[in-house]
Design a protein that fits this description.
alpha+beta; Thrombin, subunit H; 3 domains; four-stranded antiparallel beta sheet; about 20% helix; Bulb-type lectin domain-containing protein; signal
Amino acid sequence: MKYASILHKLKNKFLMKKLVLVVLALFFINCSNSEDISELNNQSTIDVYVAGQKNGNATYWKNNTEITLDNGGFSTSTANKIIVHNNNVYVFGSSGSTYILWENGSLTNLNEEFQEPSYELDYITDMIIDSNDVYFIGYLKSLTNPTIYDLVYWKNGIKTVILSNCIYRHQQSSIKVIDDNIYVFQKTIIIKKVFL
């Protein structure tokens, strides 16, 4: 028992010495060139965006500058997600059960946009931008049987049904596009559909 304790202490001491040597080597390698430091000073600044709500209005902040979005006649609204892509600002939000997209400040009522004769928009759970394509994922509710839902995604407004005749919906569904493959994540289920 005594020998094991001594061996353990020696092993830890040896590992600490190796770690100190590695850190020192990295320090000298990284700090040996003063040009690297000047390059950092010449890099462009990064804009920081935050989405939220202020005084009942969907709002986002760019570098601490507040931008209040048009409520479009709704009494209150909230900005839930913001994506900046190719100098365009996309803000996804809601007003109660109405889902809204602001693209460069221009409001689109997604409930009206995605309305169908036999289905109504029930819930949008996520939005992403890939290349120049805008994706939403959510649920349509059957007007003839309000306990039936379809899990769908929209790519630039065109609907694709992933699961139909669902008896419940998951509010945590999300979507991701990787190498032209569309991945949908739904609580405990992972669904992969590939569209080329």
